[in-house]
Write a structure and sequence with these properties.
The chain is of the alpha+beta class. The protein has 3 domains: about 110 residues, no CATH class; about 40 residues, no CATH class; about 130 residues, no CATH class. It has 8 helices and 14 strands. Strands 1, 2, 3, 4, 5, 6 and 7 form a 7-stranded antiparallel beta sheet that branches. Strand 5 and strand 6 form a beta hairpin. Helix 2 crosses helix 3 and helix 5 packs across helix 6. The longest helix has 22 residues. It is globular and about 75 Å long.
């Protein structure tokens, strides 16, 4: 299902029927880039069959997929052609374009080269878990996730409101405590990958890869002020992942024991029968159990602060010097 994921809470959603969701998604399907279009994005069938549904429901879990196509022109080619145009204009006019005019010439060069650029496509899986009230977006980029969330709000309907999952403890402070105490949270183990960074202008960074972290050196770095930005962990011996300071899960992997118990060929990386439904059921089943334990390890959900009530209006100050109250005519 995912290699990386950002998780959002469903703050409000009057969930439409699956048919209504399908019809709404059909209003934003993927269409490949036009000749001079640098980017295009839209919904595609999660099963990989172009004629399949855009919204798949498996065991109450809603699965969507966004396809993004980008066309990029090599920077070196743009620079060469731009320099040639600037040189030509300087030769003809005696003045070399700068500032806004130079930027406009660069945009024109890129526009002229786009029809010859090779498109690059990427797919992002989206998993909506209505019962748990969360949405998993299959990317490690917050910028990309925000763009997908905007599309979800537009196309899923039902007054959908999403907010990035926030916990009472920041992941950085919690990871620092686990490493300093050499004690992982209940149900988890700490693996052999970590990044520590000094939160100052120097950004001094220490990385451990394939290295045990149960050593005094790691605690010393933390006591010197460095904070973990990434930490590899395993949940219940079933799912491994890297937790980041921004509460992103990266390098998500179901471990062999889970796959074998579910009848999955680990070497092939998919269910023995190639079933989409089985793949979704296995992945969502494990991640739905992992998330509450991770939230508990991070101190629970961060409660949203209610808005402060508006101050009550104060009566107008009376003028004690007035000899009488005005009387309407």
């Amino acid at each position: 299902m995912f290699k990386n994921a950002l998780i959002y809470r469903i703050e409000h959603w009057d969930q439409p029927t699956l048919t209504e969701i399908e019809n709404r998604l059909a209003g934003g399907p993927f269409v490949e880039c036009g000749a001079t279009q640098p980017e295009s994005a839209g919904w595609v069938a999660p099963r990989g069959d172009r004629h399949a549904a855009l919204a798949e429901s498996v065991g109450g879990q809603l699965v969507l997929q966004l396809c993004t196509e980008t066309k990029a022109v090599p920077g070196g080619v743009v620079k060469t052609q731009l320099q040639a145009k600037l040189d030509q204009i300087e030769q003809e006019t005696g003045r070399r374009p700068r500032g806004k005019l130079a930027r406009e010439l660069k945009d024109a060069v890129v526009h002229s080269l786009l029809p010859r650029a090779f498109p690059k496509r990427s797919d992002t899986r989206v998993w909506v878990d209505p019962k748990a009230g969360v949405v998993w977006v299959g990317t490690g980029s917050s910028k990309r996730a925000d763009g997908i969330v905007t599309r979800l709000i537009e196309h899923l309907g039902g007054g959908l409101e999403l907010a990035l999952l926030q916990t009472a403890l920041s992941p950085a402070s919690a990871m620092a405590q686990w490493l300093a105490d050499k004690e992982p949270p209940a149900g988890f183990t700490i693996d052999r990958e970590c990044e520590l960074r000094q939160p100052d202008s120097e950004k001094a960074t220490v990385r451990y890869a394939r290295h045990t972290l149960d050593i005094d050196e790691v605690g010393d770095h933390i006591r010197q002020g460095k904070l973990p930005t990434q930490l590899a962990m395993t949940w219940a011996g079933r799912v491994s992942f890297v937790l980041t300071e921004g509460l992103t899960l990266k390098k998500i992997q179901l471990l062999d024991g889970v796959l074998e118990a579910a009848g999955v060929d680990a070497a092939q990386g998919g269910p023995d029968d190639g079933g989409f439904d089985a793949d979704v059921a296995i992945a969502t089943g494990e991640l739905r159990r992992l998330l509450p334990d991770l939230i508990e390890a991070l101190g629970g959900l961060q409660e949203r602060q209610p808005a402060a009530p508006a101050p009550a209006p104060q009566p107008a100050a009376s003028d004690e010097s007035a000899p009488w109250d005005p009387v309407p005519a």
